[in-house]
TrEMBL record:
Name assigned to this protein: Phospholipid/glycerol acyltransferase domain-containing protein
Alphabetical list of SUPFAM superfamilies matching this protein: Glycerol-3-phosphate (1)-acyltransferase, HAD-like
Organism annotation: Sphagnum troendelagicum
Signal peptide: none
Annotated ranges, domain Phospholipid/glycerol acyltransferase: 355-456
Subcellular location, principal: membrane
InterPro entries: HAD-like_sf, HAD_RAM2/GPAT1-8, HAD_sf, Plipid/glycerol_acylTrfase
Membrane topology term: Multi-pass membrane protein
Family: Belongs to the GPAT/DAPAT family.
Alphabetical UniProt keywords: Membrane, Transferase, Transmembrane, Transmembrane helix
UniProt superkingdom: Eukaryota
Pfam families in the cross-refs: Acyltransferase, HAD_RAM2_N
């Protein structure tokens, strides 16, 4: 490992100085790049006009734009956080620790030797030995969220104003292409190509045919793609972008010394609804260090918190958990269980004795915190739960089969025995959206109480679509101060139930809207299958290759389907 790393560093250093001196001897110093208009000459101390002075007019929808990524479309000039995400999410915490430990070497190489050398070190540390499918999955499901939140508002507005959009970047194409094509509708991504083995693993080395796309390599890639028809607009943020920018009819620099706001979520071309990964915060070097230092402490704290929840009565566990940093806010008044059980009609006991709690879904722990808030144990049904979580759960959990008749019988039996919690979305959603509700629950009970569940976390997500679901509770409790907010809404009036003449779909849609209104979320008609197709390349039930043509076709077919609440 260290021998290969040293070879990469020495090779990068040699190539960097060779290319630098070759550029000087060929083009002179300071470097001068002729623009598409021969009358315009720019050099290192005569930058292009700044992007703030560019006018965004209606005519730009017919123009082509080529942009750099880091520091241009993104506010941050450093790509380290995104390599860290690949190392942590597609690799392991150990790989992430090694990357953090050796990142000063990459920084020195990047800033004092050459951009190419520094990027090669980051690529080797992050990618070497990983499956391509794991890299692609992390890029698609994890990186997109952090890229969107880091978008530079000024350059973004110019970028999306143009009809044809292309990106040229030193980052590996496999790492940035899913985000750029899915959320920015980019036509072409010109990025660094990585070497792979015949078995589908990344070697950690850069393809010899293209090398790292910096400086003149960027210019060559743009020229090769566009041929004799140069792009209309070029965007860059540093001197090494000047070569490709000089090919464009007009070009603008994105200043690095001015703070700029991120792009508001309502300006996204496509809303971010699904994303995966364990890390909550963008892993800058300082944040990465904090996460790695906290992790062993968080594991011990999480085990203690879980153990207390298992052995103590709920009322006492709530008090002790609060002293350990786990907080819970309860709003509204939960219905009395005995009142539900005692309801009669025509002198006969009702078959559905329990209250049906219909909850929004944030983590696997929703029914447990609901039970604590209600002051009694509430059974729960779920589509997906690990065997370990099922064994350790302090409440009764029953797995559904996705066979409508069988599941209806199971839920009816549980309601006769007591209260029942259901999450009709069928899966969790991290963003402020509610997925489409399954309507089965509406056919089984009249005493329905909608319940909103919301959480606050600091470092780790307690849900995953790609990872080990059995670790979800551990990651949730690893947060320094995780918080749950449980809100009981008014019980559904009888006229809004199936007994009152409403169809099961009308009842489900009504509850979805009421929960969304209470949470301040938006309703969608996405389903759990849509989530797993986006994040894992499967439908959430049958394993499938994320790189298969069918999976890719399904993923591209998903479009924004937000409905009014």
């Amino acid at each position: 490992m260290l021998g290969e790393f040293g070879a990469v560093a020495l090779s990068s250093l040699s190539q960097a100085w060779s290319s630098r001196w070759a550029g000087i001897s060929k083009m002179g110093f300071p470097f001068k790049y002729a623009a598409a208009d021969a009358s315009k000459i720019y050099c290192a101390n005569e930058p292009f006009d700044v992007v703030e002075n560019c006018k965004i007019t209606k005519g730009r929808e017919s123009q082509t734009i080529v942009s750099d990524l880091d520091g241009t479309l993104l506010r941050s000039r450093s790509s380290f956080p995104y390599f860290m995400l690949i190392a942590f999410e597609a690799g392991s915490p150990l790989r992430a620790a090694i990357l953090l430990l050796l990142s000063p070497l990459a920084w020195v190489m990047y800033n004092f030797i050459s951009e190419s050398a520094g990027i090669k070190i980051l690529i080797f540390l992050s990618f070497a030995g990983l499956r391509l499918s794991a890299i692609e999955s992390a890029a698609r499901g994890v990186l997109s969220k952090f890229y969107l939140e880091d978008m530079h508002s000024r350059s973004y507005r110019l970028f999306i104003a143009c009809g044809r959009r292309c990106v040229v970047t030193a980052n590996p194409r496999i790492m940035v292409e899913p985000f750029l094509k899915e959320y920015l509708e980019v036509e072409a991504v010109m990025g660094t190509e990585i070497q792979t083995t015949s078995g589908g693993y990344a070697t950690g080395f850069v393809s010899a045919s293209t090398d790292v796309l910096v400086g003149l390599n960027k210019r060559s890639a743009v020229k090769k793609y566009f041929g004799n028809d140069p792009p209309d607009v070029g965007l860059g943020d540093r001197e090494s972008d000047y070569p490709f920018m000089s090919l464009c009819k007009e070009a603008y620099i994105v200043p690095s010394d001015e703070p700029v706001e991120a792009v508001p979520k309502n300006e996204y071309l496509k809303p971010l609804i699904f994303h995966d990964g364990r890390l909550v915060c963008r892993p800058t070097p300082l944040m990465s260090l904090a996460i790695l230092l906290w992790t062993p402490i968080g594991i011990v704290l999480a085990v203690i918190r879980i153990f207390i929840g298992l052995i103590l009565p709920m009322w006492l566990a709530k008090v002790v958990e609060t002293s350990l940093g786990v907080s819970m806010i309860v709003k509204g008044i939960p219905p009395n269980s005995h009142a539900a059980a005692a309801s009669k009609k025509g002198g006969q006991q009702q078959p559905h004795r329990g209250v049906l709690f219909v909850c929004s879904h944030r983590t696997l722990l929703d029914p447990i915190f609901l039970s604590v808030a209600a002051g009694r144990r509430v059974s729960a049904v779920t589509y997906s739960i690990s065997r370990l979580s099922e064994i350790l759960a302090p409440i009764r959990t029953v797995r559904l089969t996705r066979c409508r008749d069988t599941d209806a019988q199971t839920m009816t039996t549980l309601l006769k025995q007591g209260d029942l919690a259901v999450c009709p979305e069928g899966t969790t959603c991290r963003e402020p959206f509610l997925l489409r509700f399954s309507s089965l629950f509406a056919e089984l009970a009249d005493e329905i109480v909608p319940v909103t569940m919301n959480i606050k976390i600091q470092l780790f997500h307690g849900t995953t679509a790609r990872g080990w679901k059995s670790m979800d509770p551990l990651f949730f409790f690893m947060n320094p101060a995780p918080s749950y907010e449980v809100t009981f809404l008014e019980q559904l009036p009888i006229e809004m139930t199936c007994t009152g003449g409403k169809s099961s779909h009308e009842v489900a849609n009504y509850i979805q809207k009421e929960l969304a209104k209470s949470l301040g979320f938006q309703c969608t008609d996405f389903t759990r299958k849509d989530k797993y197709r986006v994040l894992a390349g499967t439908d959430g039930t049958v394993p499938a290759s994320s790189s298969s043509a069918a999976a890719k076709k399904q993923q591209l077919a998903i479009r924004s389907r937000i409905v009014g609440c």
